[in-house]
Amino acid sequence: MTGANTGIGQGIALAIARAGGTVIGIGRSSMEETAGLVEGQGGTFVAVKGDIADSKASVALLEEMMAEAPLDGLVNNAGIIRRADAVDFTEEDWDQVMDVNLRSLFFLCQAYGRSCMARGRAGRIVNIASLLSFQGGIRVSSYTASKHGVLGITRLLANEWAAKGINVNVIAPGYIETNNTEALRNDPDRSRAILDRIPAGRWGEARDIGDAAVFLLSEASRYMHGAVLPVDGGWLAR
């Protein structure tokens, strides 16, 4: 999985470990905290250094891992966000977000799917989208575009690969307590406006996403292809 160092990624890693799975994390940031938490509950975590923004290097890492020991599933969680008014948004901020959130995600899916098909084995891909796969948001132009793209790519791959035994699905997290939402949670007006719309009345926790990811990686979801699983406290139902 990508982006396992903190937040949602860490929650997914811990949930997979609780379910008995070995977690391999790919990323450039230290994953020592996640490794310690996973091992503390009796699981196994393997950290692999790699820059997700560099799609070619990331794909090479994944291909190497698949050649050594094919992975049962791939979780594309790594993501970044840049905030600015649309009239001020820079090309650099656009490209950085799209490279991590969409470009690398697609080519990692491609490499994983290609490897599974070459070996004639089943596989599971879980992509992490957002509520902004459905909505426009404010001051997050590239993030919104990338998360709309994640949803579209998930559906496209499901159409092409479902009959080949590869499940491709997506989780759309709501407002979760992570680094990406820290600015919103620290703004009393924005935080209150968000909480007022969430039927559950609270921000989500990383483990809420982790348990959903385990479901999509398990046999319980074997007839799910191209599905979107919102984990949002009821936000989209409002």
Descriptive report:
47% of the residues lie in helices and 13% in strands. Strand 3 (73-76), helix 4 and strand 4 (123-128) form a beta-alpha-beta unit. The model has no long low-confidence stretch (mean pLDDT 96). The strands form 2 sheets. The protein has a 4-stranded parallel beta sheet with strand order 3-4-5-6, with helices on both faces. Helix 1 (7-18) crosses helix 8 (206-217) and helix 4 (91-119) packs parallel to helix 5. It has a domain at 70-231: NAD(P)-binding Rossmann-like Domain (Rossmann fold, 3-Layer(aba) Sandwich). It contains 8 helices and 6 strands. The chain is an alpha/beta fold. The two termini are 32 Å apart.
In brief:
This protein has 238 residues and is of the alpha/beta class. It contains 8 helices and 6 strands.
